[in-house]
Amino acid sequence: MSGKIKTKEFIDSIINTSEFKQLKKAKAAIDKNKDLKKKVDDFRKKQMEIYSSKKTQKDIQFKLNELNRKFQNLSQIKEVNIFLKSTKDFNDMMYRVFEEINNSIESKLNSK
């Protein structure tokens, strides 16, 4: 079996998870409202800018808290709250997948 086919199967497995399906549903609810979508996109863009900055963990946490306070009203909107939770759940699942991949590869590298 070729690597391309295995990659597609891997992607299909991710797409078929409940985490992905919930995220897709939550995103569709946000996308229906242009104003809400813009606000969520702005929040996520600023969040990514903070995470990708070259600041200390303490500074990053301070900036994130500041951002969360600024967008507190946004997170109280039901659709946004569901979207943010779905995003977190999906990201957590992907982290576990990558962690398992990394551990398996590391184990194979260290075996004789």
UniProtKB/TrEMBL annotation:
SUPFAM superfamilies noted in UniProt: YheA/YmcA-like
Top-level taxonomic group: Bacteria
Cross-referenced InterPro entries: Com_YlbF, YheA/YmcA-like_dom_sf
Protein name per Swiss-Prot or TrEMBL: Control of competence regulator ComK, YlbF/YmcA
